[in-house]
Protein: Maltodextrin-binding protein
Organism: Paenibacillus tianjinensis
Amino acid sequence: MKMRKWMMVTAVAAMATSLAACGGNNNTNGGNAAATNAPSESTAPAENNGGENTGAETAQITPEDGASLVVWESKEERAFTDEIAKEFTEKYNVPVKVEELSPVEQVTKLSQDGPSGLAADVILIPHDNLGRAASAQLLLPNDVFEQETVKNNTEASIIGASYDGMLYGYPRAAETYALYYNKSLVTEAPKSFDDVIAFGKTFTDKPKNKYGIMWEVGNMYFDYPFIASNGGYIFGDNGTNKDDIGINTDGAIQGLAEFKKLKEILPINSGDINPDIKRSLFNSGDVAMDINGPWELAGYKTALGDNLGLAPLPTIGGKTAISFAGFKIFAVNAYTQYPNAAKLYAEFASGKDAQLKLNKLVGSIPTNLEALEDPQIKDDPYVSAFAEQAKNSQPMPSIPEMGNVWSPVNAALPEIWDKGVDPKTAMDKAAQQIKDLNNGASQ
């Protein structure tokens, strides 16, 4: 079955509905060692042998003789993969080696190492990276398990796992971000960023390394609400029109003016904020609020216990804050020596039980419909808060040109934050860079 392109326009509503129902460390060793000794023909992508398989036939797929797998996983979610890989090996007698690599780096790494047989067999990527990988023929379609995947997961996640009418991915988790806060410091979640500034003026003490709020101010992913909440966007036509760039529209510039104001209560440069620093300060009570995603939930609950609060993002300039929505998806390397084993792993590690395990270990939001109805999810106030924010989230564009957006915007944001550059000047420059890249200019 091929997904219809027109379904893309339903992504925002589907994301909201599906989530509401629930209530970068680089290892360069790379790849499956067996592939390095493969004959020359193994450098071609693996054949798509399962395209006509249906759900009734999936029980017949078995790992290749002597199969072993390499999977790439983020440092933050390594605990899940270690457990799920062990379970997979016990069930299928296929050894699995886990290598840490940031999901945002995996498509680039796959494009470099896939043809030579040095890349992982199964990769984990943000859905907005899918178009780049699929258009470069780096991935095998999700064919053998297509019917189950479509039936078992939310519509929005299936859209995110598809490109140009073809299902490639195996959805594993839905992601947006919200406002974590320490209840012992902030008695009630702020309703607006004006409230955040008012609180920060009473709490922030730079000499003592104490801040009212902290987030990755140089990262477009977390700054998107300041672009989008007043009408800005990345690409027009629901993220599909590369020629309609909206990061420097009047609405985007209005939102970024609000972004710039927050420097008063977070008077440090963007380069001095990273996930490890922010996590440590929030856990110790030196940061009162943090804009972050579900991957931090388990650790924050351990550190703060009942003092941990979670709420939708505060309003920006009187407008509801619109966050980025994304999906993490498994995909199978087109150059794998073991396509059957790799597809089995991707399906096994993204099913209901696996998604519930991932939620338990790292606080992720499932895409599996049965998992979303499980009491573990429905009765969780934190997941419910993410679901509330998801109602006002927009899926990241998944066209290949999305890869041209990150560097220019992630260069513009520090210019605004660190150097006080006028947002219009900085974003005009970034928009032109994106346009040039979309039209074939090299980075």
